Amino acid sequence: MDLNTIWFILIAVLFIGYFFLEGFDFGVGILLPFLGKNDKERRIIINTIGPFWDANEVWLITAGGAMFAAFPNWYATMFSGFYLALFLMLVALIMRGVAFEFRSKDKNPAWRNLWDWMIFFGSLVPALLWGVAIGNLVRGVPIDANMTYMGGFWNLLNPYALLSGLAFLAIFALHGAIFLTLKTEGDTLGKAQAVAGKLWLPAVVLALLFVVASYFATDIFVRLGVNPGVIPVGAAGALLATGWLIRSRHHGWAFAMTGLTIALSTTTVFMGLYPRVMISSLNPDWSLTIYNASSSPYTLKVMSIVALVLVPIVLLYQAWSYWIFRGRIGHEHSLEY
Question: Which pLDDT band, with edges at 50, 70 and 90, does 331 fall under?
Answer without folding.
Answer: low
